Amino acid sequence: MQIEKQIIDEYNHQLAGKHQRNFEHLAADIADIDNVLKKLMAFNVAIPSWALGTGGTRFGRFSGGGEPRSLEEKIADVGVINALNRSSNSISLHIPWDIPDNAASIKSLASELGLHFDAVNSNTFQDQPDQKHSYKFGSLHHVDKEVRKQAIQHNIEVIKYGVQLNSKALSVWLADGSNFPGQLNFRGAFQNTLESLEEIYNELPDDWKIWIEYKPFEPNFYSTTIGDWGQSYLLSSKLGSKAATLVDLGHHLPNTNIEQIVSLLLMEGKLAGFHFNDSKYGDDDLTVGSISPYQLFLIFNELVEGMDARGMTHATDIGWMIDASHNVKDPIEDLLQSVQAIKIAYAQALIIDKQALVNAQQNNDVAIAQEILQQAYRTDVRPLVAEASKRSGGSIDPISLFRKINVREQLIKERGLKTVATGL
Ligand code: LRH
Ligand code: MN
Ligand code: MN
């Protein structure tokens, strides 16, 4: 299904009076409002193909119906999201959950909807029915060279799929680790991982990147071979300039200062980008901004400050992706909420009085530094996000429009009630 522009415009028209009042009230206090809107309008975050169905649990999955049954239908769903918010113009594929064998037609379908392909993700954390060697004891770090070779080959295949789709990055997340002390030689595992990644790195086209994700635990509960940003940074430094560290917000132990990690990776030119989600306990993959919106804002504060200092373009120099999925909400509504939360945090970071913050820091004026940050954080910037969306041709209120025009009901009619999308 596709959402006609006219429907979006009509609904925007209905909301226009209240929106205009709120927007003007807010805009009057923002010095560089045009610049803020321009940046918000240019901002896009990729939708993961695996989040378009209900999932996010190793226990029961309870489909809400109308889930995409094929890659084409996943692309259609991203088209719906992007039509509503104008900030989700790409999809990130996970292979072999997605098998884009018919690259030409997949690509043309995506471009008809104004979409392109973000990073491609490899999967050596599950065994596939036809594979020769098992990943039970790891993949790129495995003690057996034959297993490593198989995993390397898979990553090279994923690059090849990505090239056909015009992706520009390979995301690698390894479940490799150990469940018990003594199971692994840490240095051996790290060296094997590095050598395997070097072989993959050598296959990257000139304009490609490899993004190395880290995670402290799960599915292994004693050690993970790429367990934290230090280990990922070490690998990406040794690999070279095409390699960088991917920060999945859920991949940290509780209370980790993620914004500080972001700041330093950015300083070193080694911040690949993000998998956005939220978490209370571990890798919960909850809707972005649902648990710790202040942390998200603090991360965006570092991003805005650090990227501006390095002359980076927010829209293109970093990989922005969502990696959230769960069991109880409509996946499209959930993704719309995640994108809104990210744009809200971004807008709040954009309106921080940066010069005043620098002054407060230079004067060790701790109270005022906090006031400055919280002044921005406590500002209701939703009218800015709504205005940016409207000016880009999207909806002032994407979720309420999604409900109002009964998108899910139509998808259920088209696809049926008992559909299960591939993914976690
Ligand atoms: C691992 C992870 C990684 C995978 C995705 C499905 O927890 O975050 O990014 O590719 O989940
Ligand atoms: Mn992730
Ligand atoms: Mn994860």
Number of domains: 1
Gross morphology: globular
Largest sheet: 8 strands, parallel
Number of helices: 15
Which series of helices and strands comes N to C?
HHEHEHEHEEHEEHEHEHEHHHHHH
| CATH topology title | TIM Barrel
Output the radius of gyration. 22 Å
Number of strands: 10
User: What's the overall average pLDDT, rounded?
Assistant: 96
pLDDT < 50 runs, ≥5 residues: none
Given helix and strand content, the structural type is alpha/beta
CA-CA gap between termini: 25 Å
CATH architecture: Alpha-Beta Barrel
Assigned CATH superfamily: Divalent-metal-dependent TIM barrel enzymes
Tell me roughly what share of residues is in helical segments.
Answer: 40-55%
Bound molecules: 6-deoxy-beta-L-fructofuranose, manganese (II) ion
What does this structure look like?
With 424 residues, the protein is of the alpha/beta class. It has one domain (5-415): Divalent-metal-dependent TIM barrel enzymes (TIM Barrel). It contains 15 helices and 10 strands. The protein has helices spanning 5-27, 33-42, 71-85, 103-112, 145-165, 186-201, 229-239, 258-267, 293-309, 331-350, 354-362, 366-377, 382-391, 398-404, 407-415, and strands spanning 47-48, 90-94, 116-121, 169-172, 177-178, 209-213, 223-224, 243-248, 271-276, 319-322. Strands 1-2-3-4-6-8-9-10 form an 8-stranded parallel β-sheet. Strands 5-7 form a two-stranded antiparallel ribbon. One manganese (II) ion binds next to loops. This is Sugar isomerase.
